[in-house]
């Protein structure tokens, strides 16, 4: 050991100050890396126990972990708790048995430990708190929502329906960064809350975000916006259907990418209701009929003559005037008949109620551009270069295309529909250039598929160049030849070959080292060139 320390001190003393500092830094970095690896290997592997925790749940879970003396680590601004991997599943089951994490608010577990003698008011308050907490937990399951709070207003029930006030609810949503809710999700939240409370209508549910923006409520325009969006989507879907119908037919005839079709539809989204009442004079039926019939029959004469007393007194009765001529009457059988008839007729009528379609087509416009045909160029120079000559389509073909388009879009001149078809040459120079680029210069696109290999190659080259130009020169600099190295080498233990050389030298023979020195002194410049080549190697 003394000899080894002596050799080390001799080697260290032969180095310059810069080399000593460099050697010290290298040993320091190696020691630091060694201790870091030891501490890293002995450190437990942490795994997430729960993520996206609220502040209340995180505090309760940390208290439980401290009580059981389990190491933990808090990350993600306090919303994630990590424990050693061996304790993850055990702690999840243990905390789940204690009702942790609870989530946002308090749910129906508030009734697990109901106190004896609780008043009806406290029961109603706890029920409202539990319902609010359960709804909040359900809404938090949506990916775009980070947290939510719900306030329910549950009016008291009365004996009179007129005096009852409707229930209402307010929902505050905190969205995740960079996320937003669409109208379908907002309406889903509104209907979820309204369906969870008896007597709560959707129009009494107000939804706002964490910035105070009204998403749904009684005075919002969400329904109008949804209707406008549906109308736009319906119009766009109809236009796309007509475009595809025309384009597929033309491309089957002309070829792929030989036709451009655009269709515009003017739709009427006004809902019409019409009630019509028509009377049919030819359709008459008796509604009511009244007949009055009076008949009198008996013997004796009926009163006849001038109305008065004398006409109603029988001849020869007392008090009659004898000088007055008697009025003779019909002394046969007396019959009296009277008939009164009334008929009421009902005229037939038809009452019809018509609801017009939700969207009616007012006008359809179509614009179509078709490409022509191409033939080899007439000029020998252009023909040799592969250029083609454009040939326009004749009027007969354009008329055929126009009739096809009109039939495809249900053309109606009474509505003012319009169809415009033009024969315009498509841009072929760029297409030819693209084809040539793909055929000749498409190697760049092929190299992109091997980009991941280039990454590894670059990393490998970086490591090799760092070793060649940084590590290797540093090692050579540290191990450069020093005049004191001969003394250091002499203090090192001698090998068997060196002992043999000394033994032979004692017998009068020249050692190999002396022979080499003599050879170098004799050769001069040649030996210097050889030594330079050795150093380079």
Structure, explained:
This protein has 537 residues and is α+β, with helices and mostly antiparallel strands. The protein contains 17 helices and 14 strands. α7 (222-254) packs antiparallel against α10 and α16 crosses α17. It is flat. Residues 326-330 and 430-441 have low confidence and may be disordered.
Keywords:
three-stranded antiparallel β-sheet, single chain, alpha+beta, four-stranded mixed β-sheet
Provide a compact summary of the structure.
The chain is an alpha+beta fold and 537 residues long.
Mean pLDDT: 76
The low-confidence runs, each spanning 5 or more residues with pLDDT under 50, are 326-330, 430-441
- Give the proportion of residues in helices: 40-55%
**What is the SS-derived class?**
alpha+beta
Give the topology, please.
Layout lengths: L1 H13 L2 H26 L3 E5 L4 H13 L5 E3 L4 E5 L3 H10 L22 H20 L5 E9 L14 E8 L7 H14 L8 E5 L4 E3 L5 H33 L4 E10 L4 E26 L10 H4 L21 E22 L4 E11 L2 E4 L3 H5 L3 E4 L3 H14 L9 E6 L5 H12 L2 H6 L2 H28 L6 H7 L4 H11 L5 H12 L1 H12 L1
Parallel strand pairs: 5-6, 11-14
Antiparallel strand pairs: 1-3, 2-3, 4-5, 6-7, 8-11, 9-10, 12-13
Helix pairs in contact: 7-10, 16-17
């Amino acid at each position: 050991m003394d000899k080894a320390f002596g050799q080390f001190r001799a080697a260290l003393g032969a180095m310059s100050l810069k080399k000593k500092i460099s050697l010290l830094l290298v040993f320091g970095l190696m020691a630091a890396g060694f201790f870091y690896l030891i501490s890293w290997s002995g450190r437990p592997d942490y795994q997430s126990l729960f993520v996206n925790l609220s502040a209340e749940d995180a505090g309760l879970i940390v208290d439980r972990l401290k009580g059981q003396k389990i190491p933990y680590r808090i990350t993600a601004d306090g919303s994630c708790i990590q424990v050693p991997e061996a304790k993850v599943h055990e702690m999840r089951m243990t905390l789940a048995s204690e009702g942790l994490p609870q989530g946002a608010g308090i749910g129906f577990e508030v009734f697990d430990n109901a106190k004896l003698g609780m008043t009806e008011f406290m029961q109603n308050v706890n029920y409202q708190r539990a319902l609010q907490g359960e709804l909040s937990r359900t809404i938090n399951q949506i990916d775009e929502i980070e947290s939510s709070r719900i306030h329910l207003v549950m009016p008291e029930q009365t004996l009179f329906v007129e005096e009852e006030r409707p229930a209402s609810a307010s929902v505050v949503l905190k969205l995740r960064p960079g996320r937003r809710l669409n109208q379908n999700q907002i309406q889903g939240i509104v209907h979820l809350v309204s369906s969870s409370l008896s007597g709560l209508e959707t129009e009494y549910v107000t939804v706002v975000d964490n910035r105070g923006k009204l998403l749904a409520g009684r005075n919002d325009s969400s329904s109008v916006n949804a209707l406008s969006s549906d109308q736009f989507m319906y119009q766009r879907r109809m236009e796309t259907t007509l475009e595809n119908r025309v384009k597929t037919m033309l491309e089957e005839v002309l070829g792929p990418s030989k036709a451009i079709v655009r269709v515009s539809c003017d739709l009427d989204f006004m809902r019409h209701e019409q009630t019509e009442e028509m009377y049919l004079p030819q359709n008459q039926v008796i509604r009511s009929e009244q007949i009055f019939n009076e008949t009198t029959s008996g013997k004796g004469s009926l009163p006849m003559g001038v109305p008065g007393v004398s006409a109603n007194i029988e001849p020869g009765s007392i008090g009659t005037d004898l000088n007055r001529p008697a009025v003779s009457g019909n002394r046969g059988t007396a019959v009296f008949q009277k008939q009164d008839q009334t008929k009421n007729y009902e005229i037939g009528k038809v009452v019809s109620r018509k609801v017009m379609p939700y969207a009616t087509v007012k006008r359809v416009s179509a614009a179509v551009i078709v490409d022509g045909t191409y033939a080899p160029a007439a000029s020998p120079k252009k023909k040799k270069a592969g250029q083609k000559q454009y040939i326009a389509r004749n009027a007969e073909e354009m008329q055929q295309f126009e009739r096809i388009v009109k039939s495809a879009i249900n053309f109606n001149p009474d509505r003012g529909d319009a169809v415009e078809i033009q024969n315009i040459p498509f841009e072929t120079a760029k297409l030819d250039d693209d084809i040539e680029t793909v055929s000749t210069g498409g190697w760049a696109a092929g190299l992109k598929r091997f980009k991941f290999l280039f990454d590894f190659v670059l990393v490998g080259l970086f490591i090799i160049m760092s070793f060649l130009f940084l590590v290797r020169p540093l090692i050579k600099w540290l191990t450069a030849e020093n005049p004191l190295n001969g003394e250091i080498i002499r203090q090192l233990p001698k090998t068997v070959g060196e002992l043999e050389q000394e033994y032979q030298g004692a017998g009068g023979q020249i050692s190999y080292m002396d022979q080499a020195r003599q050879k170098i002194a004799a050769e001069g410049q040649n030996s210097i060139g050889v030594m330079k080549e050795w150093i380079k190697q």
